[in-house]
Write a structure and sequence with these properties.
about 250 residues, Endonuclease III, domain 1, about 55% helix
């Protein structure tokens, strides 16, 4: 693919990124759940840490579901819950993470960090810290890999009035998922619908900030470029999409 076409795709995706209101990054099943995510850093971190193979509406509703079930979302109290108690809690929720057997260990690790290292102040996990340190902490949580760690760092700046002064955007990759893999393949930049191909494609498109394409790719995948029966006619990047070119032929 020629550089001119790659640039057109990048500009189109960046245009979509500018059009997405911050709150749209946190869809939920309940308006109160959405309010909790952007007002409670502990709830936000629970959602991020559990974001593996589950629809966004479910993931961002889980912290609120936990709060309603146990009557609080206080890390000073959650830390005393055993893995068995956490497993029973997740099993009783209306909205659950996909990897429900891993979820108790994820919440246990996160809660121990928040309480033991930061005195229960979840936002202290990122305040006055370098991005590399925040990422190191996140990667120490059970089930959190580089993709979730990068996503969490990027979403911190969406959810809260905070900006990392040292965010090295050149090394911030997208979080490969069903949306980013599908769309980068369909528009003709990625050669396969794999995590590795998607990450490489985003780096090729936007080497100064690959992770900056995560939001618009996710947004397009949710609203237009769905797995079956995509709405190509109304998709905001249809003019630069290889799939759309094939449909015109």
């Amino acid at each position: 693919m020629q550089g001119i076409q790659l640039n057109r795709i990048t500009l189109a995706l960046q245009g979509v990124a500018r059009s997405i209101p911050s709150e749209k990054y946190f869809p939920t099943k309940d308006p109160e759940a959405a309010k909790l995510i952007v007002s409670d850093p502990y709830a936000f971190l629970i959602g991020c840490s559990l974001d593996r193979g589950t629809k966004a509406e479910i993931i961002w509703t889980i912290p609120y579901a936990i709060k309603r079930k146990i009557g609080h979302l206080d890390p000073h109290k959650v830390i005393y819950m055993t893995v068995s108690e956490l497993r029973e809690l997740f099993g009783s929720l209306e909205y659950r993470p996909r990897y429900i057997n891993d979820a108790p260990f994820t919440v246990r690790d996160l809660t121990q960090i928040v309480v033991n290292e930061f005195g229960g102040v979840a936002a202290a996990l990122w305040l006055r810290k370098r991005v590399s340190e925040v990422k190191r902490i996140l990667l120490s949580i059970h089930g959190v890999g580089p993709g979730i760690a990068n996503m969490t760092i990027l979403l911190i700046e969406k959810a809260f009035p905070f900006r990392f002064p040292d965010l090295d955007r050149k090394v911030m990759d997208i979080k490969p998922d069903v949306h980013t893999r599908r769309i980068l393949f369909r528009i003709g930049v990625s050669g396969a619908e794999t995590d590795e191909a998607a990450i490489s494609a985003a780096r090729l498109l936007n080497p100064e900030f690959p992770g900056g394409l995560d939001g618009p790719l996710w947004w397009i995948g949710r609203n237009w470029c769905i797995a079956s029966g995509p709405d190509c006619e109304n998709c905001p990047i249809s003019s630069v999409c290889k799939m759309q070119e094939r449909l015109r032929q």
